[in-house]
Amino acid sequence: MAAPESGDGNNGAARMVTLISSDNTRFEVEAAAASLSQTLQLTILDGGGGGGDGIPLPNVDSATLSKVLEYCIKHAPAAANGGAPNATAVDRAELERFDNEFVNIDQSVLYSLIMAAHNLEIEGLQSLVAKKVADMIKGKSPMEIRRTLGFPDPTPEEQAEMNAHMLEYGWAYE
Amino acid sequence: MPPKVTKRWVLVSRSGEPFGSRKGGGGRGVDLSMDRLSALPDALLHHILSFMKAWEVVRTCVLSRRWRDLWASAPCVDVRVGEYSEPPEDFANAIKRKVRVIQLNGHLHESAKLNHMDFVSCPLKILKLSYAELDDQFIRGLFSRCPSLEELDLMRCVVGPGEIVSASLKTLTLVKCMFTTNLSVDASNLVSVRCIAPENWVPLFKNFGSLVTGSVMLDDTLLSREFEKYQDEDEFPQTSDEDDDNNSGHFKRSGKYAAASDDSDDFMTDDYGYPDDYYDHYSSDIKDDYDYGSDINSDTETYEYSKIANVYVNRQFINNDDVCDGSKGGHSGEVYH
C-alpha cells in the first residue's frame, strides 16, 4: 500500500489504517470507520496508522477491538453523511436493528465496550452501551438489581444499610 | 498519539480473564461483573444513570457506598413523587445541587405542589414536570434564577397566574395543563411550542420571532365558556381541518409556521384521538437527549431534533409498554378521566 496521503480527509474512503490491540493483534480497517473515534481521527488526520506503522491501542484487547470495529464499520457510512440526514427510513431501521442486536451480549463484554468507547471517544457507541446497561437496571427491586449486576447477597450489615436507605427514600420503592 | 490511558482501565484489564472473551459456558462470572461495573469511571456511570429516572437511580444506592455517592453527584435528576412524599424538598435539593436537568412527576391523584418555593440561582437547562402545581412565585423564581433554562415541559400541571419572560427558553411544551388564569409567554428565542388541550384558559404568546415549529391543539369540551372570547382574539393563523371525522364534539385548530407545517400536521392528525394515557408517554423520557450529543444549542438543529422527537414519541408509544409496566404503579399506565 502506498504511503498514507495525509491532510485530505476526502481520501479517507479508500484509505486503510492498521490498529494494534493490547495483545498485539493487527486490525486493518478503513480510515473512515476508525475515524468514528475522535481520538483516532486526530492521529489519522496526521497521516498516522498507514502502511506498516499501525496505531497501538494498549488499552483495548483484540476481542473488544473487533467488536468496536464492527460497530464503527456499520456506522461509518451514516456518520460520513453528517449524522445521516438523508438516510432513508430503511437505513435507519437497519442501523437500529443492528444496534439492538449488537448490545445483546454478556455484561462483561458490555463493560469492556463502554470503557473502550470512552477511551477512544466514540460517542454513539458509548451512549448505546450506557443505555443498554441502564435498561438492565431499570424497573427492578434492589435485590434484583444486585443479582442482575452480579453483586453477592448482602451481608447483615449491608442489609441493615439497605433497609435504612429504603426507609429514607420510601418514595423510590413504593 | 496513542489514546489516553486511564489507570483504572489497565488495572481492570489485568484482574482476570481477557476482555471481551465470550465465555460460552454461560457461567455468571459473578464477582467479575461486579468489579467491572463498579470499576468504570464516574463519568461513565453517570452517563448510564442519566438514562434512568430518579427513583430508579435511587435504588442503585443499595449496591454500595460508591453508588450512593454517584446518586448524590448526579448532574441530572428525574424525580418521581409518590402520594405521600414531600416533592418540594426533593426538588429544592436538586436545585441546590445545581443539576442541569430535572424531571418531576407528581402523582395522579395528588399533584406535587411547588408553591411558595424559593429558588437559588441554578444552571438548570431542562425542566419537565407532570402532575404538579405551580404558583406565580415558582414561575417567577424559575425564570429569574435559572437563566439557562432552555426547555420547559409541563404535562397535566396546574399553572397559576404569571408571566414567562425568558431570553433563554427555546422549547415550551404544555400538555393538558390547567391555567387558573391566562399565562403570558414572552420568550424571544422560542423555537418550538406545543400547546395541547389547555384547560380553562389558553396561554397568551407575545413573541414568536424565532419560532420554527408550533403545534396547538384545543379541545372545546375541556374549556370553560370563557374560552369563547378567545376564539376571536387568538393570534394563531387558523386552518380548517380536513379529516376531523372521528371525534364528534371536538374540533381542532392548528398554528402552522412555514418550515414546520409538515411536522405539526403529522403530530396532530396522527396523535389526536389517542387515549389520554398517550400524553403520559408523550413526555415521559428525557434522558436520551441529555447532554450527550444534544443539538439543543443550535436553532437549525433544534428543528431537526424536534422532528426526531416526534418520531421517537411515536415509536415510544408503540414499543415502550414494558418500560411503563416496570414503573411500579406510576401514573403512566393509568387513564385519566
From TrEMBL, chain A:
GO terms for biological process: jasmonic acid mediated signaling pathway; protein ubiquitination; ubiquitin-dependent protein catabolic process. Involved in ubiquitination and subsequent proteasomal degradation of target proteins. Together with CUL1, RBX1 and a F-box protein, it forms a SCF E3 ubiquitin ligase complex. The functional specificity of this complex depends on the type of F-box protein. In the SCF complex, it serves as an adapter that links the F-box protein to CUL1. InterPro entries: SKP1, SKP1-like, SKP1-like_dim_sf, SKP1/BTB/POZ_sf, Skp1_comp_dimer, Skp1_comp_POZ. Residues 124-163 form the SKP1 component dimerisation domain. Keywords: Ubl conjugation pathway. It comes from Eleusine coracana subsp. coracana. Pfam families: Skp1, Skp1_POZ. Residues 16-75 form the SKP1 component POZ domain. Part of a SCF (SKP1-cullin-F-box) protein ligase complex. Belongs to the SKP1 family. It comes from the Eukaryota. Pathway: Protein modification; protein ubiquitination. This is SKP1-like protein. SUPFAM superfamilies: POZ domain, Skp1 dimerisation domain-like. The keyword Protease does not apply.
TrEMBL record, chain B:
This is F-box domain-containing protein. Signal peptide: none annotated. Residues 231-257 are annotated as: Disordered. PANTHER family: CYTOCHROME C OXIDASE SUBUNIT 5B MITOCHONDRIAL (PTHR34223:SF60), OS11G0201299 PROTEIN (PTHR34223). It comes from the Eukaryota. Residues 34-70 form the F-box domain. The lineage of its organism: Eukaryota, Viridiplantae, Streptophyta, Embryophyta, Tracheophyta. Residues 231-246 have a biased composition (Acidic residues). It comes from Eleusine coracana subsp. coracana.
